[in-house]
Every structure is written in C-alpha cells, then in structure tokens.
Amino acid sequence: MTEEPRAHPPETTEGWYVFHHVLSWDRQALHVLDLGHAKQAAERELTALATPSEGGWSAVVPLIGSRADVMLIHFRPTLDDIGVAQDAVKKLALFDALRTEYTFLSVTEAGLYHASADLAKEAVARGGSVGDEAYRTAMSARVEKERASSHVQRRLFPTQPDDMPYVCFYPMSKRRAVGQNWYALSLEERSRLMMTHGMTGRGYAGRIVQVISGAIGFDAWEWGVTLFATDPLQFKKIVTDMRFDEVSANYADFGEFFVGKRRSAAEWVASL
User: Which one of the listed residues 102, 113, 166, 170 is annotated catalytic?
Assistant: First the structure.
C-alpha cells in the first residue's frame, strides 16, 4: 500500500540563530552601581556586539508600554556565537542592575511547504514514500535551489532595516486541539494555507520587514516573529490582517508582544 501524503513535516532551511533577551531595571541595584564606569563599559561592549566579526548583528530595543524596559536581539551564525554574546552581556556591571524577564532562542528559517507537498505527491505517484532515497535526492536539489534565491537569503540572513526603527516581537505556536490540529493536516492543505498566509504578509512589503525564526526544540513556543517598521501602527494592521487568515484563525496561538524603538548603544546608554 502506498503512503498517503499527510502528517509529514515540511522541509525547512535555516540561517542565523536568534536570541531575544528581555530585561527590566532593578532600581535598588541601579542606585548603588558606579553608573559612570558601568555605562562606559556597556557602550563599548554593546557597540562591538552590534557588528561582530563572526557575522550577524545585535540590536538594543528600549521597550515602550511593556512590563520590561529593554530587549536585546542577537543574530549570529552559530549557537556558540549566541552563547558568546550572552556571556559578554552578563559580564557587564550595568547588567547587574537588570533582571531577565523573558528569553527566546530560535533560528531563522524558510519553510518549504510547497516543495514538500509536491514531492510527497510525486512519491505516492511512483509508488514510493516520503523520506525514501528518491525523495531525499529531489528534496536536496529543491532546498539548494530555494536557498540560493535572493528572497530566501533575505529571510535567513536579514539585515537591520535602518529606515525602520520600530520593533515588535512575539512568539507563536500552531494548535493541536481536537478539530484544530495543524499537525494532522496533509502537507497539501498546510501548503495551501501557508501560501494564503504569505500573500497577506507580502501585502505589507515596503511597510514592514518580517523575520520568522523557528524554535521547535529550543523553546516552549514554536516560532518567533520579529517585525520592523517605520510606522508602529503597521504592527496592529498586519497582525490583525493575519489573524483573519484561515491558518491563524483556526490554528495559531500567540504569546506576549514586546514593542519598542531601536537605539544605538551610545544613545541608549546616554539616556540612562
């Protein structure tokens, strides 16, 4: 009996690791800190982290209207590089007066739903199965082709959009409820839903830059969404539009939202 093309994960291709670090001031600790010396050291280190020699980048995002005060975002080529950035921040005296409120570890990804669905159907048609040698060979070629495209490269290795200083970050997962189990849908159905979802996002090109990162195996939530915009009102617009898509309306759960405006290390430290 041939295998039905359902309940298989889509192929993904990954890029940079991402670490979101949300912190709040410990006011009592801040009062006893040698603030002048601590600010100088923090500015030097955060400036260096912004453009590291190993690749990637870091951003300082003072939060607005949040239970926390600042969010650091690190993009790095490897998990070890994330650890190096994390350790560098921990060693700064200024961060003795900051307490961690939330962290999120993930890796930028492009989900190849359409390619996975096509190759699953081809496997059934030839009497094979998803994951067999012919499938893996064909998938490797598709991944290589997709990864080489400029669109996928921008998704996997995003640059900081200098003209979009506002930042919104939130985690999300797909539901597994009875009657709303994303993981029980066929690849073909998931591909259809994600294509529609993607069209909604593409309607905001030029107004928002979206970075999607996968966290399965790294965090309780399954994906992280980091948005950059010139006008923060666009965050409300795009999230509202996407929640009316069938994929989000029926299958998505959202975590806490963190919103702020990027500043250089020097600007942020000077404001303290």
Answer: 170
